[in-house]
Amino acid sequence: MLQPTAPTGSISFAAGTLDPEFFPYRTLRQLLASISRRKPQLLSTYALSPGLRAFHNSIAATYARWGCTLRPDEIVTAAGCMEAITICLRAVTHPGDLVAVESPTFFGLLQALEYQHLKVVEIPTHSEHGMSLDALEVVLRTMPVKAVIASPNLNNPLGGSMSLENKRRLVGLIDTADIPLIEDDGYGDFAEAPVRALPAKAFDRHGRVMLCSSFTKSLAPGFRLGWVSGGRYHNRVELLKMMTSMGSPPILESVLATYLASGGYERFLRRLRARLVEQRQEYADVISDCFPEGTRLSSPAGGYLLWVELPDGVATDLLMDHAAGRSYAPGVVFSASGREFRNCLRIGVGRKMTPDIMAALQHLGRTFIATRTSPATTAMTESTGSSAMGPAGALSQT
Ligand SMILES: Cc1ncc(COP(=O)(O)O)c(C=O)c1O
Known about the structure:
The protein is built from 13 helices and 13 strands. 40% of the residues lie in helices and 14% in strands. Pyridoxal-5'-phosphate binds at residues 16, 80-82, 106, 108, 151, 156, 184, 186, 214, 216, 226.
């Protein structure tokens, strides 16, 4: 699913990754070389949790410019956003506990929950406005939920974002329920606002929001550097990181600390966001031209994921075939039941549009159109459709 190229060399739209050409490799390489020379001790000392203070200071200073106060002494470095979330889950839940998640949501998160033997209640999520807070409120009142995981900025796969008012309300709801919010802000740096969109953490007055993010999506996938701002759970997060993998590579933390402190990251993000607006539009135009009539497409305010909802009767999971050039993330992997969103797919639009990519999208479109008009397939897949576009769908627990 994460490979940008399918095994046969055909084009895959499954991955949530950017075109490598976008990243500022030259700058990062130069920083790595000069810091290794100037601070050889970063290569020779043992790295322990919570990580390099200069890195945490740079993160806090960057967020302060974005309008969100983070305490450097509450940040723990992690190996990507996924480790950050996994450690948060271990800090605040026990096997068998119930966790509320968006629906649809990132399949890696569902796997992490399953791996930790956690139960899931799926909260309907809107392609534009994010998690339904009315539904969440009912669930928190009636079910023994021990934590909420949400991406109020650019949820994966829908790309919806909550308004500021809803981010504030979300924090109010978890405060009232006295449970933590694990905020997955992995795509937050792409959220287009005059400056970077605020996370829900900006409204956290009681330390119940555990903000998780990384530089995997936006800057340096190979660094695998992420972090948690753990609020009142910080000590436990720090200890669990230590017990899991001791620490993170300080030389890489130092490179990113320096890049952030120079303002380079924010300048890079501004350019990247502008390019991605055009790129999303290019993909959307091709999809609108060549996918079946009645197809609906998300319109995220940032990032490089598009959610496509095909007319009922097309089961995207049955049509996946890497060898035949049909490679994408089928809708079913974004629900815990593995049954929802069968008529949907997520398309990664992180790679620059080329004639080959356009041809691959057209090929996909022809396959979906042919499937719709084939009576056998239609009969097999009837009534499998579900929607995250428009009004929120039904609530489900797994
Ligand atoms: C919503 C979401 N959260 C977390 C992650 C994991 O991020 P990382 O690669 O930094 O561990 C991903 C990766 O695809 C993601 O899409």
